[in-house]
Design brief:
The complex is a heterodimer of chains A (196) and B (496).
Chain A lengths: L2 H30 L3 H21 L3 H26 L4 H9 L4 H35 L16 H8 L4 H30 L1
Helix pairs in contact in A: 1-2, 2-3
Chain B lengths: L6 H18 L7 H25 L24 H27 L4 H19 L4 H19 L6 H32 L23 H18 L8 H8 L2 H33 L4 H21 L5 H21 L3 H30 L12 H4 L1 H15 L5 H15 L3 H26 L13 H19 L1 H13 L2
The chains are: A mainly alpha (196), B mainly alpha (496).
Amino acid sequence: MSFLDGLAALAPTIGFFVLAVIILVSAWMVSHARRITHAAFFMVLVFTGVAGVFVLLGADFLAGGQVLVYVGAIAVMFLFAIMVSDLKEISDAETRARGAGTGSAAAGGTGTRKVWFVLAGLVTVGFAGLVLAALARSGLPAGAVGAAAGPGTTAPIARELFTTFLVPFELASVVLLVAMVGAIVLVAREREEEVE
Amino acid sequence: MDWNLVTPELIVAGTGLAVLVLDLFLSEERRRSAAYLSLAGLLAALVASVRLLAAGLPDGSGAAAAGPGAGLWGGMLVADPFALLVKLLFLGIGLAVIMLSVDFVESRRIAAGEYNALVLFSVLGMMIMAGSRDLIVIYLGLETTAIASYVLAGLLRGDARSGEAALKYFLTGALASAVILFGMSLVFGGTGSTSLTALLAPGFLGLSGAAPVSGPLALAGLVLLVAGFGFKIAAVPFHFWAPDAYEGAPTPVTAFFSVGPKAAAFAVVLRVFAPVLLLGQAGGPPAVLPVLFAGLAVVTMTVGNLVALTQKNIKRMLAYSSIAHAGYMMVGLAVATPQGTAAVIYYLLAYAVTNLGVFAVVIWLNNRGTGDEISDYTGLAGRAPLAAAAMLVCLLSLIGIPPMVGFFGKFYLFMAAVEAGMAWLAVVMVVNSAVSVGYYYGIVRNMYLQDEPAGEAVRATPMVGTALGLTVAAVLALGFLSEPLSHLARLAGGGL
């Protein structure tokens, strides 16, 4: 086996790690970007990276759905919300929320924040280790991973969705209906009061 | 496929849609019709559930007798005695909450059509959660209930605390949903199936001597599920959202939160964990789950009761009280026996009717301008003797004094713990019940033993009065009927 063949065989693994780094760095930037629009665009990058992982797994339909729904609809929704709410920097919101805090209180705040930060990091690393250990000790049942790398998953997914998973499919529409009614009742009623 | 088995769900869903449409054609003065239509729909669904339960019970024939995994659409929906019994409870809760909220909704100018529709959809989600053996369907039911609940919490738009309640409930609820989904995905990864029956397959979780096929992974998933549902039932240390959400939400909605979504989450926990726990009992591991539940039970009831002692606001106090009761119920899970499971089911019924009774009194007084502070209840026996008496009955039931239904709830949990050799847990429970007397008695003392310059008499509206009468009657009657009811609970628990 030549070097190039070996590289070709490794390509999915290399691709996965490249995507993983992109996703993790972007996710970090989502929560640490100073400007909220930047955070939103890094979120788009996270969504795109996840779509790439789906492609590597041979899940073409999911990858397309991920791009259409998350990159297309949800990210645009976020940008609209940012535009409407007129918040440019995340620190704006923080200073507004804190009001006129005294200097010593702010210093104490950063101290406790560091403690929480370290705690959260420890919990994250610990939990990730736990899941990795569990993964290593578990023989995954066939079919759970690396399934259906064949050409095109759209038809099988459609078949499953409208046979085995018909009940969840219909229930999802109930969830969406409730969410819509809820959103309308929370927002529209306010307008009614304004008129009065 | 027998459509007959899902008639209760279909009726509730249809009524919810009908209420939304009807609301468009109602004039401002006739908004109450939305509530009447909702009550009619819930009653019809209740009758349908009773008929299904009665048809399935006696000889174990019919759909109810179908084995694990059977049901509609391959276990996507099931109508076993457990599902039907808790569905009766949920429908009862829905009826009581809508009756309690009619006057409240009217006086606070809440949109009546949407309010009633959201309560109906929330109840529908609870019924679906309890009546499924599939993780995806359970999650969708959960989300239906949750989304409706977030909106219900924030319906008092002019009140900043209502908005705070909705936002806190939404953020913690979304976090809990994420944790639950992560747990479900690990279980799916470990078993290769979204069906709960896959959890019980031989070899899973390292049971029955076989090599652990996917045990650790699925176990990690189950622990995440415990944490996620811990949020939903407000178990310590996942409880911090509950007092704020309960205090800020419109009071009838608080009544709903304290029994509805909580009972539904417990139903799912029973559905998912009771069979696993029983298997664990027979085969040794996974020993970590009972220990986990025992720890959660002790911490939850102790923290709930101790913090409740210091509360001045009755809604906050009832929030901590409901946390403590979730702790008692987890004792029934920790013992990992069929008796424990049956005791949890019985306690769910007992707690729900009693707490609804307490809230009925709070709403009665709230509608008449009485505040939500415990000191506002001073001299209530003089102003509203019936309200005070009803409150007394319900508080005695919450403490666990015979012959109220709450006593039997605690009694069965206690016996289950002793029989399973976990007497220490039973002792912790009794000590906690003794602590709880402290804050429940505070209300009783204010109502009966403090003199207050006699105020005006406060009368209940017909709807609230009827709801209160029914719940107090249930608190007393279910106490006397504890034997047949616990038999039913055992039967329901046995079919899990």
